[in-house]
């Protein structure tokens, strides 16, 4: 049985030799002077030597402890050499499984539009990656996540922090489902994080609709911005659906706009009946932008669509940003059309909302196209009427 003095005083010889401790532990002294701990074991009737470490980096007590660990593996039928290789491979894989790599994998699985993925990646690059992007995911703990969210709330606002929280939760859910982490470190934090006080904009009154359409038509901005805004109101499509409209989707003869499935939120093709006013608008626009893929091409690159942020910028300039957002068009349209007595199913079909009842969603494929065409023509005529009323009112008495 060895002592530390034996280990310390062992001198190299012309040939390698070993000093025996107990339970298969040896100190191997090489001609070069290197002293290495070795564990001799027998597995499947075959003797082998396993390297534990070098002396004096690993002392006698540590060598015995490590030897005990390996001996337990052997008793379980585990080959220590194979186990070490597997453990090394596991550590290499874990080091490669950084948060940034996992986030890239998560984004690739999403069926979002390219612009949506780019916007989410931009948020991650600004808010999350600087802190944990290069960290292995197993090293990321709830306190680290909370510190990111608190910092983001302070520097970028509660809305951005909430988006960061949702995104990180989704990324770590993928890690859980693929067995790369044992638990999701993103908690609810109902009290620790600032509350989001943002409220959805209310539906506009008919007087406000008229005033808004009047203000936007006369705001002096680029004609494409005015036309895109008008088309959005005439069809009650989402802002990004309107500004990214493609000429290949539009049939002016039949008065139909078939928005491709990949551009829709629910990933289903959406057929939009075009009222007379929308057809006239598009016919007037075709000689100007018809040679490009997009109805509203970007001014800097005609092969790309106009950004929906253009509409928000115009609204901010007009002073409407605090009272109305482009997406609020659909809330307003739904509210007013329901008030006018149109059937809920028809309105929901026009808005391309997904039926919440799964059974009904499976069997109800009706698009109510004829009824929707009639409804949207009535809606377009009302928009014209509300705008004309606003234009006839003295500026001082106009509702803002």
UniProtKB/TrEMBL annotation:
Transmembrane segments: none annotated. Gene3D superfamilies: 1.10.150.130, Integrase, DNA-binding domain, Intergrase catalytic core. PROSITE patterns: TYR_RECOMBINASE (PS51898). GO terms for molecular function: DNA binding. InterPro entries: DNA_brk_join_enz, Integrase-like_cat_sf, Integrase_catalytic, Integrase_DNA-bd_sf, Integrase_DNA_bind_dom, Integrase_recombinase_N, Phage_int_M, Phage_Integrase. Residues 199-376 form the Tyr recombinase domain. Keywords: DNA integration, DNA recombination, DNA-binding. Belongs to the 'phage' integrase family. This is Integrase arm-type DNA-binding domain-containing protein. It comes from Uliginosibacterium paludis.
């Amino acid at each position: 049985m060895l002592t530390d003095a034996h280990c310390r005083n062992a001198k190299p010889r012309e040939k390698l030799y070993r000093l025996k401790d107990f339970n298969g532990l040896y100190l191997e002294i090489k001609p070069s002077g290197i002293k290495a701990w070795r564990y001799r074991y027998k597995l499947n009737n075959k003797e082998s030597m396993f390297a534990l470490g070098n002396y004096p980096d690993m002392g006698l007590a540590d060598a015995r402890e490590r030897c005990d660990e390996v001996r337990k593996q052997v008793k379980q039928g585990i080959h220590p050499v194979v186990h070490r290789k597997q453990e090394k491979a596991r550590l290499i894989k874990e080091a490669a499984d950084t948060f940034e790599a996992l986030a890239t994998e998560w984004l690739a699985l999403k069926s979002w539009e390219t612009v949506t993925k780019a916007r989410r990646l931009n948020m991650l690059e600004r808010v999350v990656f600087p802190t944990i992007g290069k960290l292995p995911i197993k090293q990321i703990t709830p306190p680290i996540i909370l510190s990111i969210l608190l910092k983001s709330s302070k520097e970028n606002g509660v809305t951005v922090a909430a988006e960061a929280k949702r995104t990180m939760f989704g990324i770590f859910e993928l890690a859980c489902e693929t067995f790369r982490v044992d638990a999701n470190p993103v908690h609810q934090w109902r009290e620790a994080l600032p509350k989001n006080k943002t409220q959805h904009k209310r539906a506009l009154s008919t007087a406000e609709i008229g005033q808004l359409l009047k203000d936007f038509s006369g705001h002096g901005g680029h004609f494409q911005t005015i036309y895109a805004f008008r088309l959005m109101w005439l069809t009650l499509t989402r802002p990004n659906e309107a500004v990214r409209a493609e000429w290949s989707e539009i049939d002016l003869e039949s008065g139909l706009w078939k928005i491709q499935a990949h551009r829709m939120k629910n990933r289903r093709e959406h057929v939009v009946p075009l009222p007379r006013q929308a057809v006239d608008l598009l016919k007037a626009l075709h000689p100007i932008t018809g040679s490009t893929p997009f109805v509203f091409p970007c001014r800097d690159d005609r092969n790309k669509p106009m950004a929906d942020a253009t509409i928000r910028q115009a609204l901010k300039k007009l002073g409407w940003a605090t009272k109305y957002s482009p997406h609020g068009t659909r809330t307003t349209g739904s509210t007013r059309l329901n008030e006018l007595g149109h059937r809920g199913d028809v309105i929901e079909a026009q808005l391309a909302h997904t039926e919440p009842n799964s059974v009904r969603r499976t069997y109800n494929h009706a698009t109510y196209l004829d009824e929707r065409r009639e409804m949207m023509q009535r809606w377009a005529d009302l928009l014209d009427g509300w705008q004309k009323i606003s234009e006839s009112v003295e500026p001082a008495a106009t509702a803002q």
